[in-house]
């Protein structure tokens, strides 16, 4: 019986909740007894759980030290013979098990296989005296809808879960570069929420478990923030790398679409090509984003996938001319919450004080229209496919799934209506391009979200990331080092809503709720200027921290 | 009254034929009396009319000499001060007027404006002592659905004709590079026939007027073959540059889509993004294709159009390794007519005798499936838009328009069916990519069509070009120097049809009909290897002519 049949058959006519419980128990059973947290910790954890791996006593001092490293450091140490691949994956794997018990960040756990893979790499290194590739021995966590041979894969619903029989392009390439796999991470139903609740449970934000870790790559963001991984792989069709990275205080980039491999990913609307999801890294340093992209693009993914564009990553040296940075305080539709405004003001102040950059106010161009367009583009069939898949799997619809396929934004289209919609998309892109040039900026710094991480089940405005998906502008996020602070992050005067969405966002704000949430910002540039985004973000961060 | 209103109003409730007659008379009236051919020539022209410009007495010896030049030579002579822009456009413009009277290749004629533009360029050159751009003074003919300010533009139907109020991206860029405009060329109803009959008449093949000049850029191919232009601009969504170029014995390349500018072109299904039409040159030498592409890409079209991919043209030096050339004799569905098979055998023999290349037999991969897919992709609305536009314009449907929107290939789709179709497209592309690598070739040489140019109104199989549109593989065509010869191009034995389409193609063959038709071949490589196509075709041609 295939896993698919097994999943469909769980409990016969059992309720969805009963089926989901079986899945969660199957996963829990994969975590060795020696890595189980004591009930005392699980029963009453603090809101901020990021320190538990250090205090729970399950990791050695050496393991804790390894998990403090970023991916670049891990690769360097392994290549220098100072660390083995087995040590690396063991440390991150153990910490991942702890992270999962606290945040529900995983969908599969297979540390034993990871250790076997690592042993082979260590043997190769011993024998050949060199690494097999630029990611030799690096443990990489993988979002569930990337197939990885022999592990649980999920295309967003119960009905399209599988034990994958082969790698997708991305995991195959990462494997060839020397990466070691040990976990698959959680993602929401439909893979189209900016939160992450699935049959495997709800992913919690490690900095404040009352808040979401973001989505749809929320398993990754929680895991990386818990330091159960130093390099995760996410996908982003509306913010699914940037939002969770921002919410959890880590780094992530959504590359220009079709520059990185996506072929073979599990998905339920193949051929829906009105907007493309990108694949990219989620990690703990700016340099790690570059490490990942240079390694993956260096493997020439366009040679195996004719849909991949052979556009190299060019990271410019920003010394010859003054970088022009636009600051976008808000999108003209929804005002970010006070912590994000505080971070923007700080960045602006710091950049203005620097002689290295030129700062201008960036004016957004009709983001409301763009966001409506992309919402309509996501489900041109009016959500019929989603409803069918839920029914076929006997799966309850999550309220955020219902929201994402709801009219008036989403409606069924015939072919001529599909063309019309895509023509509107093309017009908007052209107009935006003209607008961009009129603003005289190289990059912009803007919110990645209308605030820090949200309370669970409340995320209903994606425009701060999704607008760049529609335009296909690359965007990266970075933690500012600030966290939401109820003593300072309060509205100075009663806010006046700019829109219904703004009114909703204001209603969500209560300074106390967001306590401790990381405040992140986003760096964006024009399509295919991915290298400029990375280089400029480095400069901006350096000035901000100076 | 706008031109659009005027067109719609011609003759009130007049028949389509009456409206079309008015358009043709308006165009005829633009040709000066001094450039009218004597009735004796027009009444009884020979089948091969390519020599008439030389013998009719309307062009001076110097003008005839200028029109023998290719575009590279024209640019070089102007840049060297050996030729003025006014002389160039005058010579080509006069010859274009003659060409039009014999082939119906134009939709607009405005030599006076071209001369004015040329005068300004000559003055610039005089004053500054340098050219304004790489195409300084080059007369370029433009297919009708490229808007060019102040001239007739046509999106394929009577109802979407216009006097354009601004340039599209391509003509704007060419203008900025120094090009001079003087004619717009004819194209078929719907811009989706591989022939060219419109309200402005039927374009004839200059080498044998019983045959089509090809389409949809058939006005260009006839004009360039008549030497009324040395550089034309066409579009190709299913063969519309390569087929007419092949039929008329000239050069043309369909670049990988979205690498050259298309924004602003007149079209009636904007947003239909299942396959993209490319824009490219039609000309009289291999080096002219390169001149055009290097000049246009050098203007960075992606900076104004966010849909253009910033992928540079890299023309490799093919000296370091042996070029692997696959010969595809047929596509497994329709066997080319004897003249084309003769040319393929000759190329194969010559290449095999050369030490410079390695020759292998290229096996096509399921072209029948691919061709069915692209036919379905062209009109995902089942042709409803086409029918509406014809009705709105009171325009009769041409039989080839009816054919192109006919079931079973064409049917109406809802959004989920559009996605499914595009997923099938993506699967085919991936499988084809794997297949390509299994064949171990750098480029292939294949027929550009299932024979030479066809008798009028018979062209119903596009797969020799359209398959590469579906795959987005760049393809160029070149004349072999052979022409159809009834004394040798006969079936050696009674052909056995491979398919219904083959049976139809065999039924069209009567050696006598095709007499004098140029025999051309096509060079194809993998997506984005446009520069390799150009470089390899140069090598292949050199070996063929040696």
Automatic annotation (TrEMBL), chains A, B:
Record flagged with keyword Lyase: no
Keyword Lyase: no
Active site: residue positions: 143, 216, 240
Residue ranges annotated for the Amidase domain, each copy included: 87-534
Stored PROSITE patterns: AMIDASES (PS00571)
Cleaved signal peptide residues: none
Top EC category: hydrolase
Keywords: Hydrolase
GO MF: amidase activity
Catalyses which reaction(s): a monocarboxylic acid amide + H2O = a monocarboxylate + NH4(+)
EC numbers on record: 3.5.1.4
Domain of life of the source: Eukaryota
Similarity remark: Belongs to the amidase family.
Protein name: amidase
